[in-house]
Amino acid sequence: MIEFAEVSKRYPNGQEALKKVSFEIADGEMAFLTGHSGAGKSTLLKLICLMERATSGQVVVNNKNLNRTSRRKIPSVRRNIGMIFQDHRLLFDRSVFDNVALPLMIAGYPHREIGRRVRASLDKVGLLSKEKYSPIMLSGGEQQRVGIARAVVNKPPLLLADEPTGNLDPELSAEIMHLFEQFNQVGVSLLIASHDLSLIAQMHYRTLVMKEGRLVQDQVDTITSSEEGSDES
Ligand SMILES: Nc1ncnc2c1ncn2[C@@H]1O[C@H](COP(=O)(O)OP(=O)(O)OP(=O)(O)O)[C@@H](O)[C@H]1O
């Protein structure tokens, strides 16, 4: 699903944000990306959705070599990726429904299909009853769930999340993670950048650790039998 081979990124001001980063995320895998502020997590996610380009090395996503993707083809690459941001980037002058519908409207889906898909997506995140609300009337956790509904509305095989629980308390953060697990259980691949080490530790997924632009640890978490026994979810 995602392959990085010796990927480096130097910004125009000379800042080296990624240094020879190599890893692979398999189809259907869910993994976390962590590390100190400025370690390069957001840059890594931006290379995957072509918000930035690698300076050297190779990035392959969904079997497409992004080094060779022309600007014209960027929208078709992005259609296969759902992006979730910490600040969720909702439009506050539009309804919840319209916010979630936006990617489908841009892609030119027929009106009826948009209605069907938006409602299915809102249902998945538990917000079907609030489709007419303005996002401003929702709590922080609900707003983040609208952002998630928007990211999954065209059923992308890959979700990228950049600090998706950064503004949420532990309980709401756990709820969001549970939603991600549900998407993963139906085959969606996820890469989630997060500072929240205690949340990551509770989740027992592979964790990529970055430090000063380098991938310094790639750890597959295995649940011990005693933890498994105490886990009721
Ligand atoms: N557009 C840019 N131009 C120049 N330097 C940048 C740019 N974006 C990021 N950087 C720098 O690249 C490095 C990595 O930044 P990045 O945002 O990827 O880190 P991060 O791990 O996501 O940090 P945080 O957790 O604080 O969001 C930092 O030193 C940052 O200042």
UniProtKB/TrEMBL annotation:
Annotated membrane topology: Peripheral membrane protein
InterPro entries named in the record: AAA+_ATPase, ABC_transporter-like_ATP-bd, ABC_transporter-like_CS, ABC_transpr_LolD-like, Cell_div_FtsE, P-loop_NTPase
UniProt-listed SUPFAM superfamilies: P-loop containing nucleoside triphosphate hydrolases (SSF52540)
Gene Ontology molecular-function annotations: ATP binding; ATP hydrolysis activity; transmembrane transporter activity
Keywords, sorted A to Z: ATP-binding, Cell cycle, Cell division, Cell membrane, Membrane, Nucleotide-binding
Gene Ontology CC entries for this record: plasma membrane
Gene Ontology biological process: cell division
Domain ABC transporter stretches: 2-233
Domain of life: Bacteria
Subunit structure: Homodimer. Forms a membrane-associated complex with FtsX.
Family of the protein in this entry: Belongs to the ABC transporter superfamily.
Function comment: Part of the ABC transporter FtsEX involved in cellular division. Important for assembly or stability of the septal ring.
Name by which UniProt lists this protein: Cell division ATP-binding protein FtsE
